[in-house]
Amino acid sequence: MRHDQRSSPKPGRHDRECPVGVPRTDTRFLGGPYIERLRNNRNLAGALTGITAAVVGVIANLAVFFAASTLFARTVTIDNGPLALHLPDLASLRPVPLAIAALGALLLFAARWSVLRVLGVCAILGLFARLAGLPIT
Questions:
Q1: How many Å apart are CA 45 and CA 133, to the nearest integer?
Q2: Helix 42-71 crosses helix 95-105 at what angle (to 10 degrees)?
């Protein structure tokens, strides 16, 4: 087999890798049995479950925080010792971001659009609303 510089930019590359350096699929799955052994380890499985729950909790907390900050102009903070609860002021609801979020939810769940497409449409709508001078903030 002739070595072609265009198909393999690095000399000495062996044939188990594609030209960009990513291993082929069969070499990626060689670690599969080891991962299955880790899955059967009760201690490790419990730790991974706890980590997964913590990550989901952080993501949910961020989602609620950003939604309240986007949809409402003001929030009220209730402090109770080490805990602080940020509640939105319902009188400060922003109608334009609410309409964009509602349309995004409709496109995502009812029309089954992809997240990337919905994100793009909502970003363009927000840009047009800003350029039109609608009260976004």
A1: 53
A2: 140
